């Protein structure tokens, strides 16, 4: 009965509001004047006119829409060119484009795993990795965050009749710390398991050439399954899986989130190619980003703010309580600064935090404004 549904929705809404967990979407204009410390545009590419131009030109040449799935007739030259570039960047034989990172993770897990596949996930893995194991109906076990001994213990107890998959974020999206890729790889190999790393926040930022925390430093034997996303540091949209020929062909055949969806709009692929050009020709952007990170951490420490030990653009400030986190975010908002207030269920209860993200696009004035804003929050609380 319709009324039962209305009541059910009203009850869920009421419960979420009562916990201080209700979420509102800010509507953002092209230039709303706020300084953005909430997004994932780490290199300042999302609004780079060169990407927009490439996207427009790609749409003119190849069409605005993807027209069909990749397997029917949606796979165009430009997708092929982008896949080759991504394989090259990450030092892998092949790469396969997906429309979003969420779908790439669903696709890999669903295509590789079934209900007999033991899957081991870092406790802080992204929601899409958790959901992918669910879609595969695979028994997922969580190991303590970055704890190789715990992983070792779980792997040792796993049934040996099916190969296991170890899964971790590369850079943890709400914490900013980086997985021990070499340690995970060695542990997985001891148990004949594959390692899958989702490097959504590392690609374009970390690595010798912006190739991420896996990239060329850890080859396909160490990390057989690599996922990267294109909507963060690369300022565009979409994602890819990189690996050897057999893995990629397996995904083309069996990954339902790949097979049953329309190909990425070709203009988007063109924009990503333009972003990859910038990444390789302007290494100073990454250098600038790391200078910003160092300056922010130095001056936040002077203010007495305790940041997590993160070396990446993701700099969380843990405030614990969700009301307090909302208060600080609102205070910063009044000062013209946008900072993410991250609460349960995105992070565990009691671990609410401001997720401050830095970008090569921030100048010294922007950082000054952020530090002033944080100091004002402290003063208000002390008063
Ligand atoms: C953002 C993110 C995704 C999802 O990527 P989209 O392209 O935004 O769908 C997947 N994994 C991690 C770790 C992420 O941070």
Automatic annotation (TrEMBL):
Biological or metabolic pathway of the protein: Cofactor biosynthesis; biotin biosynthesis
UniProt binding sites for pyridoxal 5'-phosphate: 101-102, 173, 201, 229
Cofactor: pyridoxal 5'-phosphate
Keyword match NADP: no
Xref: PROSITE patterns: AA_TRANSFER_CLASS_2 (PS00599)
EC number: 2.3.1.47
Keywords: Acyltransferase, Biotin biosynthesis, Pyridoxal phosphate, Transferase
CDD domains, sorted: KBL_like
Residues with N6-(pyridoxal phosphate)lysine modification: 232
Record carries keyword Acyltransferase: yes
Binding residue positions for substrate: 23, 126, 346
Example GO BP: biotin biosynthetic process
Catalysed reactions listed for this entry: 6-carboxyhexanoyl-[ACP] + L-alanine + H(+) = (8S)-8-amino-7-oxononanoate + holo-[ACP] + CO2
GO molecular function, one term: pyridoxal phosphate binding
Domain spans labelled Aminotransferase class I/classII large: 35-373
Gene3D superfamilies in the cross-refs: Aspartate Aminotransferase, domain 1, Type I PLP-dependent aspartate aminotransferase-like (Major domain)
Function: Catalyzes the decarboxylative condensation of pimeloyl-[acyl-carrier protein] and L-alanine to produce 8-amino-7-oxononanoate (AON), [acyl-carrier protein], and carbon dioxide.
Family: Belongs to the class-II pyridoxal-phosphate-dependent aminotransferase family. BioF subfamily.
Stored HAMAP family: BioF_aminotrans_2 (MF_01693)
Subunit structure, as described in the record: Homodimer.
NCBIfam families: bioF (TIGR00858)
Protein's UniProt name: 8-amino-7-oxononanoate synthase
Organism ancestry: Bacteria, Pseudomonadati, Pseudomonadota, Gammaproteobacteria, Oceanospirillales
Encoding gene (name): bioF
